[in-house]
Write the structure tokens for this entry.
Amino acid sequence: MRFKTAICDDQQFWVDMLVKKLEHYNIETGIEFDISTFLDPEELLSAYTEPGCFDFLFLDVEMPVNGKDIKGIDVAKKIRSLPDNDVKIIFVSSYPEYVQMGYDVQASHFLTKDVTTEIFDSVLSKIISLIRKDTALVKVKIDRDKCDILKVKDIYYIRSFLGKRDYIEYNTVDGIHSEQRSIISLGKEIRSHGFAFANKHNLVNIARIKRFTKDEITMDNGHKIRISRRYGQSFHKQLHDYIFTYS
């Protein structure tokens, strides 16, 4: 599989740097990239004719072009609104304080411009793994002879209920699916697909988080989920490790 990749930065030096890192990754792994580069975000948006144009999008956070200060976050919002919810967006900047904004557009990672080759390769490998997991499935047993098959990427969150032992509901893009099962056992099984406990009753798909605070997360369907004190530290660590890598 060749990955369609776009790089958008107003400075040619940083564009060339990312191209070289992708070429190095290709030499080390054999994974190939079709690379398109843009010095002007407006040119990127013009080239973005339909969802699925790119698998990867490296976006500078601040791009002063033709007297206008264009922010990468605004470019990303336009791309998400196409809608293109599948392209993996990686923000690249010299300013780590912009990290929080990335959650509004489901950014896959944030990298500083002086990122080492080692960290860059690690981040890229993780994202490629996520792309390949986009087709991962979960089997939900409805009764003895019937099962629903759900795409992992379509699940917002899974919840259990006080007083309903071993009963869970999968909240997905196409509605709710229920199953007689322990949420604890499911959590152990599905953790490798990017799920984490926000509290003892809610197992959250990290890729579906739109924004967060210390005590609450908002899913990209608008649903809010409380982060409990018991699970807070481990949840934030898993969320942080899953989405962002710093250099």
About this structure: Helices lie at 12-29, 41-47, 72-80, 117-133, 183-190, 229-243. The mean pLDDT is 87. The first helix runs from residue 12 to 29.
